[in-house]
Amino acid sequence: MKVARKVQRKWARLEERRRQGIRSMARGHSDGGTRCRAQIIVALVQGKRVPDIEAILQCSNSLVYKIAHRFLEEGEAAFADRREDNGQIVVTKHVERVVWAMVGQTPRQFGRRRPTWTLELLGLVLKERTGIRLSRATLSRLLRRMKIRLGRPKPFVNCPWPDTRRNLRIRRLRYLLLHARVGEVWEFEDEVDIHLNPKIGPDYMLPKIQKKVLTPGVNQKRYIAGALNAFTGKLTWVEGRKKNSELFMRLLFQLGREYPEAKRIHLILDNYGIHKSHYTKLVLASCAGKVRLHFLPPYCPDENRIERVWLDLHANVTRNHQCRTMEELMKEVRHWLRNRSRRLQRKYAARSPQEMYALAT
Hints:
Layout: H1 2-13, H2 16-28, H3 32-45, H4 50-57, H5 61-74, H6 93-103, H7 119-130, H8 136-145, H9 163-178, E1 184-195, E2 221-229, E3 235-240, H10 245-258, E4 264-269, H11 278-286, E5 291-295, H12 306-318, H13 326-349, H14 353-360
Parallel strand pairs: 1-4, 4-5
Antiparallel strand pairs: 1-2, 2-3
Helix pairs in contact: 1-5, 2-3, 3-5, 6-7, 12-13
């Protein structure tokens, strides 16, 4: 602790203005290294032991002693970053642009057979393109600084319609939503499958321990047909053992019971077969025009708002679930849907007319 006492004596000889400057550096300097060096000196002045400083700042004891001796010899110059003497900067703007272009494409477009990037492969291709070799640690810091993350891609299917026809249909539906008449109900409709075999997804785990999810082996299924009110956020749903036209009709009857005063009920939905079956057409014809279906272009799930509800349902209920029976799982599904409906209704009620307009467009 002789070094600590020397640091404290030198600190006592400094002017208060210079002490305050070092404290400010330790609290919030933009450079992490400079901040750490200032924090070491402030901690020594406060009488903290070297092992405690190591634990708090997650640094080595050699760094603590080096900064202390440098402070004794040079004063405030001890906090300067001396890496500028290391030579020419390697990670230039050109390197960042090349990395950005690489990550925006696949390795196959750079002559590699692997479909996904790794740090090693990024480093190899970067060296081929620029002649600059970066270590895995440097490349990892560069990706983090550029806010490039390791994520899960989103699968999609191309719409078979021409872009002009597809965009025209979507704009037409948005126009109808914006100019909805008083007394008419607009709903986003879709079906979702509930499997007793849990969907497997990421979860936090203890070191060297992999969580296990017990599966029943013999899978069971239930189906939910649901509708999301475009203006109130209310969820309406029915359950069934088969995903057929009867399930869809039961949803229509449920909507009729929930909105008895509605002049017309509009449903925005996909092109699934049960929505266009002969049985469905017969039932719709008997409704005397009270129910009208508006079909989205094929493979456009992002235009159907209830798809997000199903995504959250899987994330909050069916993923890695521990339910042993279908009845237990469906109980959890119903509980989540009721709560989600209440939250959505509060959220939609708090929206301004401008927010509702932006949502419709």
